[in-house]
Amino acid sequence: MRVIICKNKEEIADKAYKIFKQQLNEKPNSVLGLATGSSPIGLYEKLIEGYENNEVDFSEVVTFNLDEYVGIAKEHPESYYSFMHKNLFDKVNIKESNIHMPSGDSEVDCIKYEEMLSNNLIDLQVLGIGRNGHIGFNEPGTSFESETHIVDLKASTIEDNARFFDNNIELVPKKAISMGIASIMKSKKIVLIAMGENKADAIAELIKGDVSEKCPATILQKHQDVTIIIDEKAAEKC
Ligand code: GLP
C-alpha cells in the first residue's frame, strides 16, 4: 500500500490524474471502476481537462460504477447516474453503451451486474471512503466475501448524504445497490482518495488498523496494488 500525503485537493487531483492518464495511455480500452462523492470530483475535472487537451481519450474506455441509490429514478438530480453524467460522462467522448451503473433492487439485478463485472475485470478502480470506513456502500459488518448486493444504509451515511437532499433525512434513500467487497478486491489497481478531518479516523484504521469487517476499508491492506491519496487533515491520526 502506497500512501501519498498532499497539501491540498489540487495536488490530490494531480496525483490521481497521473495514475489514470498512464493507465489510459497504456491501455486505451481500460475498464475503469468509478465512484461518486466529493472525493473523486477533482480527478474527474482533471480527466475532462486532459480529454480537452488530447492527453486522454475515452472512445474505447469501459466504466463500472460502484453503487447507486435504490428508490430514486436515474433522472433524479441526486442519483449517481446523474452525478456521473454531470461530473464526467457528458464532458468526455465515452460511449453511453460502455457505461455501466448498478441499478434495481432485486437479487437478479445484483447477479446481472456481478456477471458483467466478471466479464470485464476492472483495471483501475477509484474509491472514496465513508467516515465509518465504508467503501462503495459496503457498510461496517459487510462480509469480505460480498459481491454486488442490496444495502440498508447506516444512520451515519444517511446523515452524511442529507446535504444532497435539502438537508432532509426523510428524502435520503435508505437503501442502495453496491458492488461488494470481493468485487472491489478483484480490481487490478485501486486508488483511494480522502480529504478532511472527518475522514482521519477511517484513514488511520485503513492504514494501521486490524483487517476487520468492522471497518470495510481495512481489506485494502490485503490488495497488491493500492495507492491512498489524502490530504494532511485526513492523515492527522496516522
Ligand atoms: C458515499 C458513496 C461512497 C463515497 C462516500 C464518501 O457514501 N457511496 O462511494 O466514498 O460517499 O463521500 P465523499 O467523497 O463525498 O466524502
Describe the secondary-structure layout.
Elements: E1 2-6, H1 9-26, E2 31-34, H2 41-52, E3 62-65, E4 67-70, H3 80-87, E5 99-100, H4 107-119, E6 124-127, E7 149-152, H5 155-161, E8 175-178, H6 181-185, E9 189-194, H7 200-208, E10 226-231, H8 232-235
Parallel strand pairs: 1-10, 2-3, 2-6, 3-5, 6-9, 9-10
Antiparallel strand pairs: 4-8, 7-8
Helix pairs in contact: 1-2
The structure holds 2-amino-2-deoxy-6-O-phosphono-alpha-D-glucopyranose.
2-amino-2-deoxy-6-O-phosphono-alpha-D-glucopyranose is lined by residues 35-39, 66-67, 128-130, 136-137, 157.
What does this protein look like?
This protein is an alpha/beta fold and 238 residues long. Helices cover 32% and strands 18% of the residues. The chain is built from eight helices and ten strands. The protein has helices at residues 9-26, 41-52, 80-87, 107-119, 155-161, 181-185, 200-208, 232-235, and strands spanning 2-6, 31-34, 62-65, 67-70, 99-100, 124-127, 149-152, 175-178, 189-194, 226-231. The strands form two sheets. The protein has a seven-stranded parallel beta sheet with strand order 1-10-9-6-2-3-5. Helix 1 crosses helix 2. The two termini are 14 Å apart. The model has no long low-confidence stretch (mean pLDDT 97).
